[in-house]
Amino acid sequence: RACGPPWIVFAAMQRFHDALFLRLGLVVQPSKCECWIDEAHIASLDAHRGLVTRSHLLDGALTPHYGVMCYGVPIGSEEYVKLALAGKCDEIASISNKLIATLSSSHKQQLWL
């Protein structure tokens, strides 16, 4: 994970990628990396990101909202954060509903745990 101005971050990433290759023979796949920057600075990001993708989530109208997940925490536009948290809530609710459906008929006491 890296934070900072795009021209510094992407230059540092390139040095890191070069070192990984020289020391370990590993090749980083930039297309599998993700980045985000506030829309006010997008031109600077686009000038430096190369093959690194801009991470996004789509809303119901298929409008992209940009951001990234960092250690499970959504960082990005307000809409991106709302969509990411709503998705996590839906995931938790689905698991809870599955447990309730599975345990309610035969193991009602376990629902209290």
Q: Can you characterise this structure?
A:
- By secondary structure, this protein is α+β, with helices and mostly antiparallel strands.
- The chain contains 3 helices and 5 strands.
- The strands form 2 sheets. The protein has a 3-stranded antiparallel beta sheet, with helices on one face.
Global shape: elongated
Q: Which parts are unreliable, with pLDDT below 50 for 5 consecutive residues or more?
A: none
Helix content: 40-55%
Spatial order of the strands in the main sheet? 3-4-5
- Helix-strand pattern: HEHEEEEH
List how many beta strands DSSP finds.
5
Class computed from helices, strands and strand pairing = alpha+beta
N/C terminus separation: 37 Å
Give a quick account of the main beta sheet: strands, pairing sense, barrel closure: 3 strands, antiparallel
Mean pLDDT: 87
Radius of gyration: 20 Å
- Which percent range describes the beta-strand content? 15-25%
How many helices? The count is 3
